[in-house]
Structures are given as C-alpha cells and as structure tokens.
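Subject: Interface between my chains keeps coming out wrong

I've been trying for a while to get a sensible model of this assembly. When I model each chain on its own everything looks fine, but I need the whole thing in one frame so I can look at the contacts. Pasting all components below, labels as-is. Any help appreciated, I'm running out of ideas.
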Amino acid sequence: MRPLSIVVRTICNIFAWFVAIFGAYVILHGHLTPGGGFQGGAIVATFIALLLVAHGGKSFLGWVKKEIFSSFEGAGLVAFVCVGFLGLSTTFLYNFLALKGGLFGSAVPIGPNAGVLNSSGTIALANIAVGLEVVGGLSAILIFMFLGMRYVSEGGKEGVKDDK
Amino acid sequence: MMDIAHIAILLMIVISAFFAIWFDNLLNAVISLCVMSLLISLEFYILQAPDVAIAEAGIGAGLTTAIYIMALKACRSSRWPGKGNDKNERS
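Reply #2:
Try treating it as a single job with all components included. I did that and got this:
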C-alpha cells in the first residue's frame, strides 16, 4: 500500500499519539473505569493500524520490526501466567499484593470515593499483561495482512520472505 | 426522550445493515459496515454496558474496517495485475 497524501500523514502524525495515550489510559485504569486490557489493547492496535494505513507499510516496517509484536504477544502471555502462579500459595490468581502497601497495595478509603489508582494488587499487573498480549496479537494480524497484500500485488513471484 | 434516541439508533442500525448488503461497490459496503458497528457501540452504551461499547468501537469500527480495506486492495491488485492498479485504487 502506497503512503497517502501529505494532509493525511500530517494529521496522523499529530493525532495518532492521542489514540495511543488513550489506549494506555484504558489499560492502566482497567480496575477503576470501564475497559481493561483487551479494550485498551484494541485501541493501541488501532493506533498501529492508523500508522500503517497513513504511512504505507514499507516505511512502517522500516521503523519497527515485525518480530517485536510477536515478542509482545509471548511476553504478555508469560507475564499473565506468572502473575497467576505467584499467588499459588493460596490459589491460582490470588491477589497477594492487595493491602500490603507499596506501589500496588495502598488501602482503599471507606465511603464514596473516586477510586485509588494504586489499590488493585495484581489486577493492574494482569491488565498490563493482557494489554501487551492484545497489542502484539492484533498488530501482528495487521502487519501479516499487509505482507500478504504486498505478496499478491507483486504477482507472487518475489515471495514474502524477502520482506525480512 | 431516551426512548426516541434508542429507537432511532435501532432503526439506523437496520438501515446501515441493509446498505452494507445493498451496495455494489465493496468499499461503500465496508464503510456502511463500519457505521453499523459504531451505532451498535452507541446502543451498547445506552444499554449501560460501556465495557462492551469500548471493545466494539475499537475492534468493530477500527480494526475490522482496516483489515477489510486491506483485503479489498489486495483483491483489486490481484484481479488486475500490473497496469490497472492506479486507476482502480483511486475509485
């Protein structure tokens, strides 16, 4: 896919970062507001799709290697399973960090309140792991879709493997 | 007031789903499907499921449309290999 016009690319350069920041917000506030790992990961993957469509896949693959997204996928899955097994002294996925103090375990105030960001224990870690996995998976789908498209448009002679 | 908005959104979902089937140009059909997905996410929000609404807006309206458009471009360039690419991509 060739890059789109300079208008589309400039608007994408300015506004695509807000999509990425909003996706990170939805992932990190997954235990307080609607959303979570899957929804925020889908929003961040929309950011990848926006860059891929506006700048063309050739320059996008010049910036980022596609193996990075596969490694995101693997790292997210391993992190989620590790978070599950760390609580195994009680049960699988036991929230062993809650109410222990520190970064993830601050106490929740009593009464109506807006929610404390650091109060979730392992839920935030699991959300981050799921978000990483969904970003990797959906971005890998988009990138391999683009590589197959380039394979078809070159008549199938060159093969996918010379795309590195 | 809320009922009117609710019924209007349901009607627009049906209309956009009809247009997604009715268009001969496949790009128009994909955009109509995107509009249907966006209206469904609005409907989920009215039914007080904001979680599902975010997932539907991100995946249905964003990613699926991008994947469909990529597949559509690949189909065009495979149907007219070589010279016809520019003319067909502009339409």
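Reply #3:
Confirming on my end. Chain B has one domain: 2-90.
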